[in-house]
Amino acid sequence: MLDSKKVSLGIAPIGWTNDDMPDLGKENTFEQCVSEMALAGYAGCEIGNKFPADREVLKRALDLRGLTVCNQWFSTFLISRPFEETAGPFEEKLDTLKYLGARVIGVSEQSYSIQGKKQPIFEGKHVMDDREWNLLCEGLNRLGKIANDRQMKLTFHHHMGTVVQDEKEIDRLMAHTDPDMVYLLFDSGHLSFCGIDPEKILNRYVSRVGHVHLKDLRSSVAAEAKAKRLSFLDGVRGGTFTVPGDGDVDFKPIFEILGGRGYEGWVVVEAEQDPAKANPFEYAKRARAYLRAAAGI
To answer: Where is the Xylose isomerase-like TIM barrel domain (predicted)?
Structure first.
């Protein structure tokens, strides 16, 4: 069980409108999304593509509903572009997130990513050489120092289709980055889709987990996506992911590890689905009820 005094529960807007496939949920407005988040009983959220760009406007809208921003995705290109091209926008994003109440930023290295391409998700992924690994790890340490100086945490999001996807890649990243500057964004769904036991990774790195995505996996759909050589996004359209308690991920040991090791921070329901097939408000409420019963929050 999780300690509700240490752990806050949020939800990502990607169930209402998909950032990578904006036709999914194009009919759902920002106001509907954040109102339903609040009605479903969540304390915070991540930022989606329909959220107001003006941070003051956004903060007013969220304050009205009792919501806090807890994180936002940030794409880095540390192995393919000069460091300065990432560092400037990174600093701007940190300042905005801190103003909105967040203390975490979720970084994903997007150089050569295939997650948005029309190619099989398990084929053709870029594999970094030693030079690229050095660029990535040194760059993350530098960005982590920038975040730390602002009392923020850089959390790294392992993700299907990116240069840090599998267990060996996660291990190498953790081994060659500064534990005081670079934290892990633990995502149960991406680990499960990749064929990795989330419990094993969490046990190994729980002391460095700075943010948690609770994403469930429909194993039969994931297996079909792999067998049919579908892209990541086509798999999402088909229903690869769902909310906690609705798929095949065993969340009990995840909650036990986080609770037993005194995790403090946000756990965030994140399940990109087609909202025409999976009503986002209904699934948000379903996840909320599951986490109250299974995790004690």
So the answer is: 37-293
